[in-house]
Structure formats: C-alpha cells, structure tokens
Amino acid sequence: MFSATRTVRYLVQRRLHSSSRIPPSVIAKNEFSIARLLGYTIVGSVATGTVYDGAVNGFENIQGAHRFLRSLGIGLSISLDYAWSLKGLTESDGVYETVLQEVHRRSAQKLLDGCLANGGLYIKIGQGVAAINHIIPKEYVETLRQLEDRCLIRQPDEVRSLFVEDFGAPPEEVFASFQYEPIAAASLAQVFRAVTHSGEQVAVKVQYADLRKRFDGDLRTIMFLQKLVALIHKNYNFGWIIDDLQGTLREELDFVHEGKNAERCAKDLEKCDFVYVPKVLWGLTNERILTCEYIDGCKISDRRSIDAQHLNVSEIDRQLFTAFGRQIFSTGFVHADPHPGNVFVRKNPSNPKRLQLVLLDHGLYEQLTPDVRENLCRFWEAIVLRDHPGMEKFAKLLNVSDYRTFAEILLQRPLQLKGPAKTRLTEQDLAYMTKQAKEHFDRIMTTLRCMPRNLILVIRNLNTIRSIARDHGDPIDRPTILARCALAALCPSRLNVRNFVWVTFRRLRFEFLLW
User: Fold this and answer.
1) Which domain of life, per UniProt (predicted)?
2) Per residue in 314-341, pLDDT tens?
3) Quick one: 126 and 228 in the same domain?
C-alpha cells in the first residue's frame, strides 16, 4: 500500500512537471474538469474487482487484479493525454478547441471501453457521469449514454445455468417461449423477452451470475481507488458518499426487493394516470430473476420515435417532473435511477390522445424521513417566494448553513434575488454555474457532507431528470413545477373553513410570485 502511494505521487509529480509549459490560461480553464474527470475515471472507471484483500479467490481474484490495473491505466492515460495534447497551446490558438474536443472524445471512449470490460458497479457510476451533462463535455455525455441499456452481453449458457439453479429448469421450460437475445443489458442484469404458459408477454430481468460474489470486492476496490484520487486531487474526496450508499447498493442486488419497490411506486403514483409501472409476476420472480409484464414503448431520450408518434416533448417533461416531484415532496419514496433507459414513453392505452410514462428498474430507491421531506418542501417554497430568512431557517433544519449553495445544488441554476422567475437557463446562467463549480468546489462538497445523507440520491434523481429535460431543449419551467409539487405536499386536501382560507391565500400568493 505504501509503495503504491509513493508510485502514484511520483507519477503525479512527473505529470505536473511535464505540464509546466502549459500556459496558465489553459490550466485555469481545464484544471477543474480534467481533475474531476480523472477522479471519476479512477473511482469507477472500470474498476470492479479485488485489490488488497482476499475478498474472493482463485480465478476471480486474478480477474479483480486485471480490473484494478485496467482502471489505473485508463485513469493515468486520460490524465496524461490532456497534459501532453494541450502542451504549448493557448486558448487563442486556432487549433485549441479542435485538439481539446479530440482529447475529450478519446478519453470518453477509453472510459466506455473500460466500463464494458469491467462491468458491475462502475457502469452505474458511468451512467451518473453522463447525467451531469451541464458540467462535463458533450463528447463524454454522448459516448457514455451507451451505458443506459446496452452494456454487458453474457452467453446463453450462463442464463440457462442460473435458471436451472433457481427454478430447476431452463428458461425454455419455465416459459412457453424465451428469446435469448437480450432486449437490454445494464450494470446488474440483462433483460429478455418471453411468453408465459398462459400467453402473457413478459420482460425477464436476469442478474449476472458472478455479480454477488464480486460485489464486496467491487466496493472495496472503488474505495481504494478513491483514496488514490484523494492523494492526487485532495479536494475530490467522494469516499464518504460511496461509504454511505453501500447498504442501498446492496439492496439493489435483491430482485424481490425491487419488485416490492415497483408495487409501492405504483401505489404512491396511482392518482397520476400519466404514469404506469409494469406489474410483477411473483410466481416467476426471485432474488436473481425478476419477471414483469412487457411494455412496448420508446426511451424518453429517443426523439426520433417520440416525434414519429407526434408526442409532445413539453408534456413529456411536465409529466416527468410532476411524477418525481410527487415522489420527492409527497411520498418521500424516491426512484434514484431514472436515467433514460429506465423511463419509457407511450400513448396511453386507455386514451391514445394522451401520453404515458412507464417507469422501469425499481432497484435503487431512497426513503426520506417525514421531517426531512417537510423541511425540503418548505425550503423549496421559500426559494420561490424569495424568502431568504425562510431559506436560511429550513436549510439549518436540514443541517446546512450555506443556504445559497444548497439552493443552487437543488435548482442547478443561479439563485435569483429579485425579478420575475426565469423559465429557462441563459448562457450567462450556465457560465455562472460552471464558474461556481470550479471556484467554490470546497463549498459545494461541504454542503453535500452536511445535509442529510438520504438527500444524496434525491439530488441524483433531480440531476438525471434535469439532464433529460436539457436534452429536450429545456421546454418547461422545471423549478416551478417542482415548487408546485412542494406546495401541494404542504397543503392537505381536507381542511376546515379557517385553514381553507389560509391555504387558499397561500397558494394565490405563491402563484402570483411565479408570474
């Protein structure tokens, strides 16, 4: 461990020395993004295996070492590529942007190739990186999106063996028909299309056979690599996040747990007829195999299919934010992985003139406590009302002292002090947020550490659906929709006359300030 640390420090010193001729303006522009991308790279880049203890043995231990070395190699390769390729260039050089884009493209492809080679937990991290499309270069976003549902393809023999272990028969006997060509493949499992003996079309989610025995080693490896990142870039220590999420990530391996989450989600959103959750077939479900009804729809990011069906993108995004706003502010039971591969769009079967969202993959959820949920609602209301004392009060109840930074983390846009509410981000707003992320990263990390831990995955949810809306051209006023969801959660439907008058006044004042 000590020798590895010294080696990394030596490589970093050599890298800095080799970069010494890069002009300060270039370093200033790229210091944050390159450092952060290197952090993401080494933390997850493809690393999932056993590194420094005997979590697993034999063949898997060898494979774990391969994954670790591959991860480290990719991280260093990306870092050195930026330093070498930009050496001697300034922002005013005509080729600067072209060279930078090419480095982004090469680095993104290295990340993708590594993710697909190693699999497991880092594919989830890669999906998360792709969701922060307002921070990382578009070359990374476009490349890493392949991790949404086209990841690892395993051989049919592995699937057949798992069915025999769990159900005592191969898939072609358990089902009337079973297509071995997966319709989707992600971080934990492949999804296949099948037909039950009763004639029902179903989607069958089959966990990768080696996933469970690799899981503990994966986590330890990621934590170890995170420590290496902290040695290189002391401000980029995300280990506490990984440590806090271990239990939640472990629950995602249990498909029975996922099925129960799906049923609870369906119940929580039953009043939202524009949302549908596929029903679970419990007789064909266990911890490693999940069978649900098959839904024919298109990914929420598939603009070509959406346009071909003449579906309204603004309405899609409005429903998306309303559904998850209800989860965050009303039920507190929040889908933590709503990337485009997990949200489908279709015409409502009961009313083809309307559209419907289909929510998939319910393995990763977060449960907010009632007090956190209520204080978050009141904080969001205070944002809309420009009530700074209120923001400060409810931020402190959430253990956050810097309410301005907290508000901007949630909104992913500048906190307005006055004037009419903005419906969309301007170029100046984007520049401001990028500058804040670069110049006040310590403040952001302090805020994230202070706030309740169960808000981490809520922020992941908000960032992911914001990413979807951004790709659609930001056709809606996202903060306003979420603010209305927060106010609805604070105002009960059953009221006496006195409270009815007060709630009505409160809502009218709220709507007036939204204009």
Assistant:
1) Eukaryota
2) 999 999 999 999 999 999 999 999 999 9
3) yes
